[in-house]
Design the sequence.
């Protein structure tokens, strides 16, 4: 994003003296991927612990210390902090400079599976993210929590990846430049296939490991688990494949849904799923859980291993390619506690637009340049965003600072899931509703990293 965009004065966020803050350090680190050492970024607490677990009713008292040689800023994805603490550079606050720090202090009013990640430049591609789990108050140890963060990994630096994407239109033969005009002007044939997976990644990771050396999670024989899946990828959607197990989907994006049973569940970029698993008793066998790349055979995963289970080699390639994600599953989800029924005070049409060849992505044909006008709303309004995807790629659209409900899919009204990130596949229209109850200047963007950087980014403003 434009470094001069919507610059604001650095907020002074005081911490209550009676409670020391949790320190999150932004550091450079190394991991091994496919037998090679990779230099990456990370968010870590003392002792090398990644992520943070807290509970509803506590205050989110955190100090971010930047130990990198470059600026950064961390976004609390799915949370509803005061605007200035949202962690979006030049929209909510300036980035934290090398050697600098920033303090955060706000009340946690709801729980679930969330995550934190850098919103500065392309740092998210370098695995600058971590889980953020908020437990309900007084919750007992009824289930073992198993947190899995999915990421896509490349040895190629993110800046080179982005430059390559931006340069593809310059090297394509003339016969292949059919997308050179803005996509809004192009009719989309009913039989046209969507474009999937802009980037060819070297590996897909589950908790930063491949299936060549997967994480083996120790579980009880007949154990009861809550599988908290975070899709922290920069550009990739997945299918969750539970293999021999059947699970119950209990929550999406941190918010409870009416239970749905199954063995496969879709998870778009930046979304989260909570799946309840009851392992069979008496069987000393390991249970792989796979995450299959959308439209491909490649997969990653973890292995659930009760005592005495033998863990053998797990194939990193599925037998057949997975299907593109669509909205058939989403249309079946129902919020356990939907928004109060209310007529919309404001309806805002949102067209997702772009130029594939030039790799310019936009909202309502305006690519973000730091001066793009905000969508205006008024405090207290029920707002509906009617999002129509005019492009041939899916876009997971993320609204900062609010929880929204999916209320319409392709003309069919429903009391859908509460979310913060909604996948909008090609040629589909989705309506989401939210209450304007958290004043400020809030980012609204495609969560595919390079799409946001290429312009599919806007803001919503109210006081």
Sequence:
């Amino acid at each position: 994003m434009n470094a001069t965009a919507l610059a604001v004065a650095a907020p002074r966020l005081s911490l209550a003296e009676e409670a020391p803050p949790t320190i999150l350090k932004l550091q450079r680190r190394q991991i091994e991927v496919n037998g090679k050492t990779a230099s990456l970024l990370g968010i870590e607490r003392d002792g090398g612990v990644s992520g943070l677990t807290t509970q509803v009713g506590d205050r989110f008292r955190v100090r971010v210390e930047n130990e990198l040689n470059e600026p950064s800023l961390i976004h609390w994805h799915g949370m509803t902090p005061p605007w200035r603490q949202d962690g979006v550079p030049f929209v909510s606050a300036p980035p934290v400079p090398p050697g600098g720090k920033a303090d955060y202090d706000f009340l946690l009013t709801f729980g679930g599976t969330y995550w934190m990640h850098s919103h500065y430049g392309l740092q998210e591609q370098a695995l600058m993210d971590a889980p953020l789990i908020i437990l309900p108050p007084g919750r007992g140890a009824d289930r073992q929590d198993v947190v899995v963060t999915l990421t896509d990994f490349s040895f190629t630096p993110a800046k080179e990846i982005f430059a390559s994407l931006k340069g593809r239109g310059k090297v394509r033969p003339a016969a292949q430049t059919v997308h050179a005009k803005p996509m809004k002007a192009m009719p989309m044939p009913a039989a046209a296939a969507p474009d999937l997976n802009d980037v060819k990644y070297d590996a897909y990771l589950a908790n930063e490991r491949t299936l060549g050396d997967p994480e083996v999670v120790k579980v009880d024989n007949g154990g009861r688990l809550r599988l908290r899946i975070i899709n922290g990828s920069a550009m990739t959607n997945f299918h969750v494949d539970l293999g021999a197990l059947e699970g119950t989907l209990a929550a999406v994006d941190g918010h409870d849904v009416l239970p749905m049973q199954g063995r496969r569940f879709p998870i778009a970029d930046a979304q989260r799923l909570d799946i309840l698993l009851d392992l069979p008793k008496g069987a000393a066998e390991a249970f792989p859980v796979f995450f299959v790349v959308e439209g491909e055979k490649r997969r990653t995963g973890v292995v659930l291993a009760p005592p005495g289970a033998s863990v053998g080699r797990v194939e990193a390639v599925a037998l057949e390619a997975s299907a593109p994600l669509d909205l058939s599953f989403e249309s079946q989800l129902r919020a356990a506690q939907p928004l109060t029924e209310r007529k919309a005070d404001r309806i805002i049409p949102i067209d997702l637009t772009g130029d594939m060849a030039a790799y310019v992505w936009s909202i309502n044909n305006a690519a973000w340049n730091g001066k793009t006008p905000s969508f205006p709303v008024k405090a207290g309004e029920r707002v509906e965003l009617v999002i129509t995807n005019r492009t041939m790629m899916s876009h997971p659209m993320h609204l900062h600072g609010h929880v929204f409900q999916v209320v319409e899919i392709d003309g069919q009204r429903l009391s859908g899931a509460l979310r913060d990130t909604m996948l909008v596949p090609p040629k589909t229209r989705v309506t989401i509703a939210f209450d304007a109850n958290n004043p400020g200047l809030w980012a609204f963007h495609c969560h595919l990293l390079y799409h946001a950087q290429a312009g599919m980014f806007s803001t919503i403003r109210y006081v």
Confidence is low (pLDDT under 50) at residues 1-16, 171-191. Residues 189 and 234 are 29 Å apart (CA to CA). The chain has two helices and 31 strands. The first helix runs from residue 158 to 171.
